């Protein structure tokens, strides 16, 4: 009996150990790494697809708003701001789709490498399998079983050899089946990834086409706005009136804030308003910002700057307006140029909702987060909410507070 057998290490065990360490282990190690990358990439792709669908929803909402005012020249300036937003969303969508395609390309490359590695392993196992079969056949035909039985040593040796080859054949056969099964699954995965890539390319082509059409619309809008600039005196008069309305509104809001204490209508609820910064729900659904916060250049007059203490949100006609946080109504009034206006106190912070057709709340009412407080008015075939956030007597940028 050989030294290896005495120590409990049969020739089969030694060969299997050698194959495993030198060949199979490296293959399995590579397989685990690559399969792990599939899981990581799948999660990333899910995130990208979710973001893509969110952008598509924003584009759909904006399209609906643009269609409402497609024939109304009175709202061209606000339409231009919305179209700019639409083009930016299209570009974001293109970037998202390209990221998904890049990940799919990487997955396909990894899958192809893994499949090639499996083909090599399968060929190697087939060669080993055939060698084993030939060796077993040769042993059975060249050695006389009767002679082997006359010698204890021969019987023992024959038994060990037969057992060795049978176990090795079984081992190789099992591995061959496993790898064949894995290759089938891998081929299916690659086929699915190729289908995904084709779909993404189709979507990319559609978005590029729509983005180009939207850019043309923007160019046409600018031409139409240029025609409005010809009547500069009328435009300046309108802007002066809007400026006076904003100044008057600021005074009214400041007076409301000052008077709430003397009238005893201040909210006594402890507010966690600041905890929702960047996470607040929008006061209207399906809206698009048509005018940003702060000072900015007028879109049609280069030498003129306009100021906005809040943001203007173009929304569906007669859209319902909701409170962004719980609090107490401290004012419901009519403001020149801003229509019905509701002011809610949130302890130190205040939210202002203007351009309402009607208010469904009254001064002194306790308001819950998300509660309906009114309906937007319709002017020139469009509805637009003017929304402000104040911290005592200082305005805040609502975009820093709203979600997304």
TrEMBL record:
Pfam families: Peptidase_M23. GO terms for molecular function: metalloendopeptidase activity. Residues 308-398 form the M23ase beta-sheet core domain. Keywords: Coiled coil, Signal. Residues 190-259 form a coiled coil. The keyword Magnesium does not apply. The keyword Signal applies. SUPFAM superfamilies: Duplicated hybrid motif. InterPro entries: Cell_wall_metabolism_enzyme, Dup_hybrid_motif, M23ase_b-sheet_dom. This is M23ase beta-sheet core domain-containing protein.
């Amino acid at each position: 009996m050989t030294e290896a057998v005495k120590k409990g290490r049969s020739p089969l065990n030694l060969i299997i150990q050698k194959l495993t360490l030198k060949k199979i282990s490296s293959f399995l190690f590579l397989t685990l790494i690559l399969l792990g990358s599939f899981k990581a990439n799948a999660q990333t792709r899910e995130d990208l697809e979710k973001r893509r669908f969110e952008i598509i929803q924003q584009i759909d909402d904006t399209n609906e708003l643009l269609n409402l005012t497609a024939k109304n020249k009175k709202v061209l300036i606000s339409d231009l701001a919305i179209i700019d937003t639409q083009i930016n969303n299209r570009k974001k969508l293109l970037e998202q789709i390209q990221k998904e395609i890049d990940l799919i390309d990487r997955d396909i490359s990894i899958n192809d490498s893994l499949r090639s590695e499996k083909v090599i392993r399968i060929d190697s196992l087939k060669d080993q399998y055939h060698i084993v079969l030939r060796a077993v056949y040769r042993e059975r035909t060249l050695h006389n079983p009767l002679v082997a039985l006359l010698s204890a040593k021969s019987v023992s040796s024959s038994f060990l050899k037969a057992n060795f080859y049978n176990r090795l054949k079984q081992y190789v056969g099992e591995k061959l089946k496993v790898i064949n099964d894995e290759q089938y699954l891998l081929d299916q995965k690659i086929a699915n990834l190729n289908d995904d890539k084709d779909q993404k390319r189709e979507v990319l082509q559609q978005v590029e086409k729509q983005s180009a059409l939207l850019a043309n619309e923007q160019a046409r809008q600018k031409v139409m706005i240029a025609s409005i600039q010809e009547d500069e005196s009328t435009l300046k008069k309108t802007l002066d009136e809007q400026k006076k309305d904003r100044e008057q509104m600021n005074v009214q809001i400041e007076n409301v804030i000052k008077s709430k204490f003397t009238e005893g209508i201040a909210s006594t609820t402890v507010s966690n308003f600041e905890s929702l910064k960047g996470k607040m729900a929008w006061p209207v659904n399906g809206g698009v910002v048509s005018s940003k916060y702060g000072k900015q250049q007028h879109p049609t007059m280069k030498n003129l700057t306009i100021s906005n203490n809040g943001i203007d949100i173009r929304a569906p006609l007669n859209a319902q307006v909701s409170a962004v946080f719980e609090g107490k109504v401290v004012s419901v009034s009519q403001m020149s140029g801003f229509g019905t206006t509701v002011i809610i106190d949130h302890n130190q912070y205040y939210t202002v909702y203007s351009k309402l057709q009607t208010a469904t709340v009254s001064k002194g009412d306790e308001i819950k987060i998300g509660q309906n407080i009114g309906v937007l008015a319709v002017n020139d075939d469009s509805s637009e909410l003017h929304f402000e956030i104040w911290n005592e007597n200082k305005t805040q940028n609502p975009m820093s507070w709203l979600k997304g």
